[in-house]
Amino acid sequence: MPRDIPVGNGNILVAFDKSYLLREFYFPFPGEESHTVGAVFHFGIWVDGKFSWIPDGWKIEKDYLDDSLIANVSLINDSLGIKILANDLVDFHENIYLRKIEVENLSNQEKEVRLFFGQDFNIYGTGIGDTAAYKPDVHGLLHYKHDRYFLVNVYANNKFGIDHFATGNKGSESFEGTWKDAEDGILSRNPIAQGSVDSVAGVHFLLKPKINETCYYWISAGKTWDEVKELNEVVKKKTPAVLLKRTFDYWKLWVNKEELNYSPLPEKVTRLYKKSLLICRTQINNAGAIIAGNDSDVIYFNRDTYSYMWPRDGALAAYALDLAGFTEITRKFFEFCSKIITKEGYFLHKYTPRGTLASSWHPWEKANKPQLPIQEDETALVIWALWNHFKLFKDVEFIKALYKPLIIRAADFMMDYRDHKTGLPLLSYDLWEERQGILTFTLSTVYGGLIAAANFAEVFGELNLAEEYREGAASIRQAMDKYLYLEKEKRFARCLYPKDGSYEVDKTIDASLFGIFAFGVYSADDEKVKNTMSQIESALWVKTEVGGIARYENDPYYRAHENYSNPWFVTTLWLAQYYIAISKNEEDLKKAMKILEWTADHAMPSGVLAEQVNPHTHEPLSVSPLTWSHSTYIATVQEYLEKLQSLKICSHCGLTKFRKKGKS
After folding, report:
1. Strand partners, 25
2. 577, 636 in Cβ contact below 8 A?
3. Which residues have a Cβ under 8 Å from the Cβ of 429 and sit 6 or more positions away?
């Protein structure tokens, strides 16, 4: 089940499913560690003897407060005569998850109402060895194991503290979970449980006709009891209302800091652009790792998650965030990359949020021969993105610290990791992580990476080295022309597979062929590019009312219909980026805008973008949110505005009639 309305602060990440049930709680990094493993934090209500768990019988609408990382959720139950408005957030400064709940009596009779909040922690990713206990000194519920502590508390009826609670065991036939204890409206007050445990907190109040009451619920996260106890005191001292207000103000300031001129954009495109910035931020930890996605349900598909840092996804996200002006984030990412690159100069498959080597299915040996289990585009794209960063910000001293350990190290590896007879790079796994070969996309990124390294070497005065890297890039392009361009089809092949001293050509039309212009190998106006992109659009546009671009012909991944592959947001936006690159006037840009609007139309109501879209039902598929989807949207909007600015030049004064920042 896709995740929705994520909220976070770079240390904590909380996310919900489509039913507004809390399913993800990560601390101290987004993506690591998961303290729920997708388990449900139940939310229920008892009204005059009738009980209902969310979502049964509820109409639910989920969104964010404008320009913020504060969820805004409406829940209505007509049979109970109750409406709930909820706001969820993680304080921008402290490690506190907070929910404001406003309960309204829609009827003409007084109602007795009881809210129940379930906590199903699996600390460090397992329910074994946990403790749940009521702490009378703070009137709160504490879950802990080793050096992870989570303190639950409430503010209701004008006072702090939990009066109604239960702890207990879960996960067996006789102990389904303590949350079941709430269904009669009365909690047992069992004060402690250990092993595989959960807990429930209750809030009681009387609601007069047509009147609403407000309460607050929060979880403080820390590494010691003293830490979470102190955070609980912060909530009491500052008040929950102040934490909500200051967090709203912070994110409004953050997302609007560049004062972008949004006047040329439709409102829905502007809204999704801002939401994409904010949602991306929830997936980025404060140590610099940009995480691909955090959705525990994907475990049931392939026994692993997307909660890792792929250097490729991170580099492309950094490129987008640099265009948007968020250099504080991207600098941390590049510093993170400098720490994890191998001494030989390449990145491995993927990394944990704290920077250790993550799980992989790329082998170190194949056919009884050792090999490098890498996707070389991941190394190349970090250097390519870093040069784009430097072009924008000219932060010389920042780059100085990265020049030798990251830029030169990676460039030298790319120069060496080649067949010097053909000029082609050696074998690499593809960006889809499905095949190993010599890939057009990978070659395009290596070209871009080497040109970026040459540019760095030149500005740092190493002209001979710059020339060497440029020659290496030129040989890559020559090899692409010779081995990967299909004269008959007038487009590029996806891949070459070495076979018996020659190459087997994979002619599959793949959306990743957009890389031939995206990373500078060819101009977007080159006939080879035009023909390739035209065939991508013709072959991969999904022929249903949903539309969108599939990854490649007959893609089986998460396939939802036997006749159609699924469209991806990333691949569809690549087509928009191509349209932008070839636009000569404002009329030409309309094709790109249609895709930006298509993306907004297929986002969840909250603005969350999944990886894929069901080609028949429009429903999100695979992981959501996917950072790559959101960052590609950010980049495409920025490129659209940049191109528009370049097209609207006054013939008299030579200045643009449209300014990307500020008022036009």
Report:
1. 14
2. yes
3. 349, 362, 373, 374, 375, 435, 436
Q: How many Cα neighbours within 13 Å face the side chain of 44?
A: 25
Q: Are 60 and 20 in contact (CB under 8 A)?
A: yes
Please give the Cα distance from 545 to 555 (Å, whole number): 19
At 335-353, the pLDDT tens digits run 999 999 999 999 999 999 9
Query: Which of helix, strand or coil describes residue 502?
Result: strand
Residues 6+ apart with CB under 8 A from 118: 40, 41, 42, 43, 44, 177, 178, 179, 182, 198, 199, 200
Q: How far apart are CA 200 and CA 214, in angstroms?
A: 19
Rounded CA-CA distance 142/119 in Å is 10
CB count, 10 Å around CB of 618?
12
Q: What is the pLDDT, as a whole number, of residue 561? A: 82
Query: Is the bond preceding 462 in cis, omega lying within 30 degrees of 0?
Result: no
In 10 A of CB 259, how many CB atoms? Answer: 10
Q: Note if the bond before 625 is cis, omega within 30 degrees.
A: yes
Strand 502-506: give its sheet, edge to edge.
Answer: 428-429, 436-439, 495-499, 502-506
Cβ neighbours for 346, distance < 8 A, ≥ 6 positions apart: 372, 374, 376, 379, 410, 413, 417
- CA-CA distance, 329 to 320, in Å (whole number)? 11
**Please, are residues 7 and 606 in contact by the beta-carbon 8 Å criterion?**
no
271-299 pLDDT tens trace: 999 999 999 999 999 999 999 998 877 76
**pTM of the model as a whole:** 0.96
Write the single-letter amino acid at 436: Q
Give Cβ neighbours of residue 326 (< 8 Å, ≥ 6 apart): 277
